[in-house]
Structures are given as structure tokens and as C-alpha cells.
């Protein structure tokens, strides 16, 4: 496996050569989904989430624990309840999507709390199945929920109790072996370099010494552009990951608004806005903005992709962003201050009036 992501190909992404399926290689189908555990620098806690492994370069997995469907359970060792309930409920036919489906529900359960039936259903927004028609799959997930339907409850009773720690018993608790990121790291191979600095100063220094180096955060834009690192026409040999940059992991909630650093993901924004709404019940815009942002892509992408990256590809490549009109409406309607890196917000605001598409989207919000 080539650890350096010079192209969006199955040989440079983190999709393991196991039962996890590489399929579209664009973050669109969910067949390659794996669960990761990582330290969330913005919220200062360990989190579980599902990601499209086809878009995640192997080097970006440094310091993370990655669980594939093999780590969850198997017929030989013992099936996890997620696997058992999908199988019992005829939630698979050809089986191509099944590893991704299992990992989708597994990551939801591992991310804490007991999901509601609605949450578990919405959690399918990033996984495509061409055979089952979803009903049996959704019911299998619903059987873990606090408000499961009578049919889903029957399935749970038939399959037995859910042992939330089974995976840990099978493979050991991964997070116990991991450290909070504290040091900058870099990887080099065959002319390609990957830098993951911890400070803004260091990131800017690297950029100064290597002007053609490309900043990335979620590295998901290659999924829609069908080519990796096209800033240098596919030849950006040096990549600077902003994920661990302390100054860009700022998430501030004050009485007058929210400030998001440039290393925050779209999911960070959604969660922060929802929490802000709970505290500031007299306001209406935080929930409206969060609901709008939930329409961007699907949850595997939202938890990897940065809001800043979305604005950057909108400015640089004319990407028809869904995030931009949401932020634009937020800016207009509630005076929310969005802290943008490199003046991207201002540049976008200057560009937007001439775009009929933007104006159309803008009026749709009024
Ligand atoms: C399957 C799929 C579905 C999608 N669906 C939607 C959708 O429905 N609606 C929508 O609006 N978008 C959608 N997107 C686009 C997605 O939102 C963007 O790919 C994502 O937001 C880009 O963020 P990133 O962190 O991954 O950027 P990256 O891929 O890491 O970088 C993209 C660009 O931004 C620059 N950049 C990134 N972060 C910073 C920063 N902090 N400072 C300076 N420069 C930076 C990089 O240099 C690069 O030029 C989809 C993407 C995929 C793959
Ligand atoms: S292979 Fe389709 S989302 Fe990764
Ligand atoms: S079971 Fe065939 S694609 Fe889902």
C-alpha cells in the first residue's frame, strides 16, 4: 500500500484490502466505510466516527485507531449484534454494501448515547444499497434505539442483548493505546511529502519554504474533483495537513456569537450551533443554520470536511456549494461572525453578487 496520496486511487487511500469494499472512490457510496477513533482537538475529547476510507490517505491515519468490519466480529470468533441483526433481518442480498452498512451503524453506537429511530434512519444518508430497499437494514439499526418500533424490538429480542463492549473484548480498547497529538509529524516517500504541523507558525513556515505545497484538511475535495491535489495540476508533491494546528482548532461560543477556526469540520459547526440553540432559546437562527448545514453531503463527509475547504473550492473552482448560501443567510439574518482563514469569506462576499445562482439561493432563504 502506498502511504503517500499522490492520486485518488485505491493504492494510496486507507481502504484496507480486507472485506471493506473500494467502489466509487469518491466518497459517494459508503461501501468503504470504516470507524475511526481520534482525539478531537476542538472539543478536547476522544470521539468515534465513520469515514469514507477511500478518501482518507493512509498517512492521515497517523495517531488514529481504525476499526474495519473484521475488527467488529466474524462468524468464526463471534458476530457483533449489528452484524447479527442485519443478517437475521435479511438486510443483505449481494453483500457488497454490507461491510460499510455494518460500520455505519457500529460507529453510530460507539459514538455514545442511545440513538433515536429517526437518527438511526438519517444515519443512512451516506450508504447506498442497490439490493435490499433499505427497510430491513433500517429496522436492524432501529432495534438498538430507545424508541424502536414493535417489529424492531422483536428483532432485538430474537437476536439477544447488545453487548456494547464486544469489540473491545475482541480486539482490546484501541484508545487505550493512543496518545493525544502533541507533536508535528511528517512523512516522505519517493518525492512526496506530507506534513502535519501542530502550530500555525510551523504551517506557514513550511508553506514559505515550499510555495507549491497544498493545504488540506479533510482532503475530501478530491472526491468531487476526481483528481487529487489539482492545485498543481495533480503534481502537488507537498501536502500540509491543517488537522492538528492548534490555532485553527478554535471553537468559541460567547453571548454574541460563535467563532470557528479553519480546521473545524462541517459537523463541528452543526453540533456547536445545536448546543448554542439549547442555551440561547430566544434565538431561531442557530437551529436553522444547523439544519441547513445538515444538507451538505452526508454524515461521513461532514465529519471529515472543513467549512473552510468548502468555501475555498467555491472561490477557486466555482463549486456550487450548499454551505455558502447557509452561511450567507446566517451572516445576513443574524449578523453571525464567521471567522474565515485567508480572508476567504470577504473574497466570496465580493464575488457573490455577480452570481445568479447565489442570488437565487439567497432569495430562497428569505
Ligand atoms: C461525496 C461528496 C459529496 C459532497 N456533497 C456536497 C454537498 O452536497 N454540498 C456541498 O456544499 N458540498 C459537498 N461536497 C463538498 C465538500 O463539502 C467539500 O469537499 C469539503 O467541504 C472540502 O473540505 P475539506 O476540508 O475536505 O477540503 P480539502 O479537500 O482538504 O481542501 C479543499 C481546498 O481547500 C483548501 N483548504 C482546506 N482547508 C483550508 C484552510 N483551513 N485554509 C486554507 N485553505 C484550505 C485546500 O488547499 C484545497 O484547495 C461533497 C463532497 C463529497 C466528496
Ligand atoms: S468507495 Fe464509495 S464511498 Fe468510498
Ligand atoms: S446488498 Fe447488494 S448492494 Fe446492498
Automatic annotation (TrEMBL):
This is FAD-binding PCMH-type domain-containing protein. It comes from the Eukaryota. Residues 187-366 form the FAD-binding PCMH-type domain. Keywords: FAD, Flavoprotein, Iron, Metal-binding. Pfam families: FAD_binding_5, Fer2_2. The keyword Oxidoreductase does not apply. SUPFAM superfamilies: 2Fe-2S ferredoxin-like, CO dehydrogenase ISP C-domain like, FAD-binding/transporter-associated domain-like.
Amino acid at each position: 500500500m502506498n502511504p503517500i496520496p499522490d492520486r485518488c486511487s485505491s493504492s494510496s487511500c486507507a481502504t484496507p484490502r480486507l472485506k471493506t469494499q473500494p467502489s466509487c472512490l469518491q466518497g459517494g457510496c459508503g461501501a468503504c466505510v470504516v470507524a475511526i477513533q481520534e482525539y478531537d482537538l476542538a472539543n478536547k475529547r476522544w470521539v468515534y466516527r465513520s469515514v469514507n476510507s477511500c478518501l482518507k490517505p493512509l498517512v492521515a491515519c497517523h495517531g488514529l485507531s481504525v476499526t474495519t468490519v473484521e475488527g467488529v466480529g466474524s462468524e468464526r470468533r463471534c458476530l457483533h449484534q449489528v452484524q447479527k441483526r442485519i443478517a437475521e433481518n435479511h438486510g443483505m442480498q449481494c453483500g457488497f454494501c454490507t461491510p460499510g452498512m455494518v460500520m455505519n451503524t457500529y460507529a453510530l453506537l460507539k459514538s455514545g448515547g442511545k440513538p433515536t429511530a429517526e437518527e438511526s434512519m438519517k444515519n443512512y444518508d451516506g450508504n447506498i444499497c442497490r439490493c435490499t430497499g433499505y427497510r430491513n437494514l433500517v429496522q436492524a439499526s432501529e432495534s438498538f434505539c430507545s424508541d424502536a418500533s414493535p417489529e424492531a424490538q422483536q428483532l432485538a429480542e430474537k437476536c439477544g442483548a447488545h453487548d456494547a463492549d464486544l469489540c473491545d473484548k475482541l480486539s482490546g480498547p484501541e484508545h487505550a493505546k493512543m496518545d493525544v497529538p502533541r507533536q508535528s509529524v511528517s512523512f516522505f516517500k519517493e518525492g512526496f511529502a506530507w506534513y502535519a504541523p501542530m502550530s500555525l507558525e510551523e504551517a506557514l513556515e513550511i508553506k514559505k519554504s515550499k510555495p507549491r505545497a497544498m493545504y488540506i484538511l479533510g482532503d475530501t475535495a478530491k472526491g468531487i474533483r476526481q483528481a487529487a491535489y489539482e492545485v498543481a495540476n495533480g503534481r502537488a508533491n507537498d501536502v500540509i495537513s491543517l488537522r492538528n494546528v492548534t490555532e485553527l482548532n478554535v471553537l468559541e461560543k460567547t453571548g454574541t456569537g460563535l467563532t470557528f477556526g479553519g480546521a473545524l469540520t462541517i459537523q463541528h459547526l452543526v453540533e456547536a450551533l445545536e448546543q448554542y440553540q439549547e442555551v440561547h432559546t430566544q434565538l431561531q437562527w442557530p437551529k436553522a443554520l444547523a439544519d441547513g448545514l445538515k444538507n451538505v453531503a452526508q454524515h461521513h463527509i461532514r465529519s471529515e470536511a472543513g467549512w473552510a475547504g468548502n468555501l475555498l473550492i467555491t472561490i477557486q473552482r466555482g463549486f456550487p456549494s450548499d454551505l455558502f448560501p447557509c452561511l450567507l443567510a446566517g451572516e445576513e439574518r443574524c449578523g453571525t461572525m464567521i471567522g474565515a482563514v485567508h480572508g476567504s469569506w470577504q473574497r466570496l462576499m465580493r464575488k457573490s453578487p455577480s452570481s445568479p445562482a447565489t442570488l437565487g439561493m439567497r432569495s430562497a432563504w428569505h
